[in-house]
Amino acid sequence: MTTNADTGLKGEEIAARYFLSIGYDIRGRNVRVGHDEIDIIAHDPVDDVIVFAEVKSRSKLLEDFPPELGLDWRKKQCLIHAARAWVNRYHYDRGYRMDLVSVVGGRVTGHLKELDWD
Q1: Tell me, what's the pLDDT at 46?
Q2: pTM for this predicted structure
Q3: Quick one: which of 111, 116, 115 has its CA closest to 14?
Q4: Domain coverage including residue 33
Q5: Close Cβ partners of 107 (under 8 Å, ≥ 6 residues apart)
Q6: I need a surface site. Which of 2, 29, 66, 97 has the fewest CB within 10 A?
Q7: Is residue 74 a contact partner of residue 61, using CB atoms and an 8 Å limit?
Q8: Number of folded domains that form the chain
Q9: What is the pLDDT of residues 68-92, one digit of tens each?
Q10: Cα–Cα distances in Å, from 33 out to 20, 48, 68, 105, 117?
């Protein structure tokens, strides 16, 4: 039986391979910043920004609950906090954004760039 943790880890692996396939450079995975974690840190060479990515995975598509709905207000705040802490820790003074990658059934089904935080 596959656990939610297994699905999440597989989803993060699939998302990392997806990023590589579109030319991103992976800078870190499962990066802990204080009590928070960033699933993937990558560099987008087209926009020349660091991407802090949250990965939401499902083993199968649930019609009423796509992976994107798993990114609730609390998780968004944790990602914002972790990204800002990382930027401060490494004195990073260039552009960055926060993205969401959705994985369902072993494949990327969505990549939302520059998440809307309102």
Answers
A1: 96
A2: 0.88
A3: 111
A4: 4-112
A5: 14
A6: 2
A7: no
A8: 1
A9: 767 788 888 999 999 999 999 999 9
A10: 23, 23, 23, 29, 20
- Over residues 3-56, the pLDDT tens digits come to 777 778 899 999 999 999 999 999 999 999 988 999 999 999 999 999 999 999
- What pLDDT sits at residue 65? 62
CATH of the domain at 54: 3.40.1350.10
Residue 117 lies in a domain: no
Query: Which helix (H) or strand (E) segment is 4 a member of?
Result: helix 4-21
The count of other CB atoms within 10 Å of the CB of residue 93 is 6
Residue at 100 is within a domain: yes
Within a domain: residue 89? Answer: yes
CA distance 88 to 4: 32
Let me know if residue 118 belongs to a domain: no
The residues, any chain, with a CB within 8 Å of residue 74's CB and separated by 6 or more, are none
